Amino acid sequence: MDISERSNAVLFLGSGGLALFFQIMHYLGISEAQVYALLFVFFFSGFAGFIKTISFRENLRAFVCFDITSKALSLFVPFVVAFGAKSIPTLYIFVDYCFSFLILGEILSVLICIQRLKTRNKDIKEVDIYNLMVKKFQDFLAKHLKIKEVEEQGEKDKKSNIKGE
Fold first, then answer.
1. Domain spans of the chain?
2. Which among 20, 48, 61, 114 has most CB atoms closer than 10 A?
3. Cα dist from 67 to 59, 63, 95, 134, 145, whole Å
4. What span, in angstroms and rounded, lies between the C-alpha atoms of 78 and 100?
5. The overall pTM is greater than 0.85
6. Cβ neighbours of residue 49 under 8 Å, at least 6 residues apart?
């Protein structure tokens, strides 16, 4: 197989992959603008992270293995939620929220990366907006649903059932 046959095969498979991707987006009802914005922000964040990795002489292999892979995997989170929304239509609002949080998180990551480069300070911690929001939501639910009190009551009930037997 010569180089022109290989390049034709790559172009054919790439076109098929893009067609499949756009068909899945259409089937799930995901806006193309959201996907384009997320891809653009992921690309820019990856580029800024690459520049940061090179300028601070960090391990490039670790950057590729962990940072780029995590960005690629987090791209599929809204698609997974959209597949769930096909069976439960009220989940469609969470698809928009997933895209919004991913875009905001990556913009924050780019800003922190630029600040690190500007100040030449590697010790600036990145704020993981996703885990921060989940923690705040858990604290909110625990506070308003009084989960700890319910758990304590459940433990007391178990102890009283054991003593009663």
1. 1-30, 32-126, 128-165
2. 48
3. 11, 5, 23, 21, 36
4. 10
5. no
6. 63, 67, 109, 113
